[in-house]
Amino acid sequence: MKNEYVTFTKTIIGGIIMNMVDLIIKKRQGKHLSKQEIEYFVKGYTKGDIPDYQVSALLMAIYFRGLDQEETANLTIAMVESGHRMNLDMIPGVKVDKHSTGGVGDTTTLILAPLVASCGVPIMKMSGRGLGFTGGTVDKLQSIPGFNPFLSINKAVENVQKMGLALIGQTENMVPADKKLYALRDVTGTVEQLSLIASSIMSKKIAAGAEGIVLDVKVGSGAFMETTDKAIQLAKEMVNIGNRVGRKTVALVTDMNEPLGMAIGNALEVEEAIQVLCGKVEGPIKEVSLVLGSYMLYVGGYVNNIEEGKAQLAQNISNRKGLQKLAELIYAQGGNDKVVEDLSLLPQAKDVIPVFAKDTGYIQSMKAQEIGRSSMLLGAGRRTMKSEVDPAVGIVMKKRVGDYVMAGELIAEFHVNKKDQLKEALFIFDEAICIGSGKPSQKSYIYDVITE
Ligand code: URA
Ligand code: CA
């Protein structure tokens, strides 16, 4: 039987005849796809030569059969090659990037980028916007009066050359294959496949140009990965890809069962980052930042071990070099750098509403995702990519998991402008906090470090 689709997608690459149906069947049977075959479908799909329905079928076959390490690396490289690759050669020194899979109250980039840059590491970092219950660095930066995260690439590179740091939004033409494939996965039930997730994340990091990459894979109720096993597997897949393409890559697997910091909101998280850089805030947000930062120094070859890295970072908190670098960054991108000395210059919400504990006992758990959702309802996050965020609003936690509280004791503050969804936000928040009698055991915030 003649099949028009088979004819439609038949292409000759390097003397080999490729057609999409063969690839789908091959993967359906659990066989290995060659580098040429992977390049063929990524290129063909990005150009619009291969239709959605065939790529959907292939993705579903991949979902059930998986990709081996070589296929995963080849998929990543093919996606990187679908678009513009950042060239950072003009910047002297080993460039280091970091990426978090996303969480709640997770403002490590705002702390780390200036702190690590203040140790002499050039950092050119691209970040995204927040969606749903998770925040995004671009939104946090835009809460700083005047700050422009949308510099041209040339201007950003120039800033890194001058002062060692630029934080910008994701550019449009980076990894178009991932954009198309991710959108298709989203509507075909094929998002949750570890090799596809790993190649999607790593393609963007590799295209962004840094030689060293530190990944923060979040696990828990407020994260994309809900179990430690899955998070470790994802971390291994990403480290494998990075190392295969010549980027020194390390992944930390860290806790996201409760918000990492105490602030959930945009200006509120900027405020917390400034407080950490001033040495005024301790706790897990600082602890996790120092470890991530030490690995950034380590993968870049700036220190010999993690302890040395931690000591350098701690020093640049106490001598305020990290804070000074943040001020320089804000100034270089058009913002009011006085905010680092005067937090009242950040946008402030009209009302601060106290929220009280409903029971007496130890806080057993908090559902980070629900707290993120509650903050989103106050206006700090977006329900869809088109929603607007209010930079001033959000939640400031006053207690953490393991703390003892009395019924009626202050547990959080809601920073509020519009009250139309306040009731729902409070309801979701209350449901997220679980108070019980036994003291929960002290937990660690860093579960694992994957280096190969
Ligand atoms: N984030 C990404 O960028 N890609 C995925 O596939 C999943 C999460
Ligand atoms: Ca304030």
Quick summary of this structure?
This protein has helices at residues 4-9, 20-28, 35-47, 52-65, 69-80, 108-117, 137-142, 153-163, 176-186, 194-207, 228-244, 266-277, 284-299, 306-318, 321-332, 368-378, 422-432; strands at residues 11-13, 16-18, 96-100, 123-127, 165-169, 212-219, 248-255, 263-265, 351-356, 361-366, 394-397, 404-405, 410-416, 433-436, 446-450. The chain has 452 residues and is an alpha+beta fold.
Secondary structure layout plus pairing:
Layout: H1 4-9, E1 11-13, E2 16-18, H2 20-28, H3 35-47, H4 52-65, H5 69-80, E3 96-100, H6 108-117, E4 123-127, H7 137-142, H8 153-163, E5 165-169, H9 176-186, H10 194-207, E6 212-219, H11 228-244, E7 248-255, E8 263-265, H12 266-277, H13 284-299, H14 306-318, H15 321-332, E9 351-356, E10 361-366, H16 368-378, E11 394-397, E12 404-405, E13 410-416, H17 422-432, E14 433-436, E15 446-450
Parallel strand pairs: 3-6, 4-5, 6-7
Antiparallel strand pairs: 1-2, 7-15, 8-11, 9-13, 10-12, 10-14, 11-13
Helix pairs in contact: 2-4, 3-5, 3-9, 5-10, 5-11, 6-12, 6-13, 6-15, 10-11, 13-14, 16-17
This protein binds uracil and calcium ion.
Residues 343, 348 line the site of calcium ion.
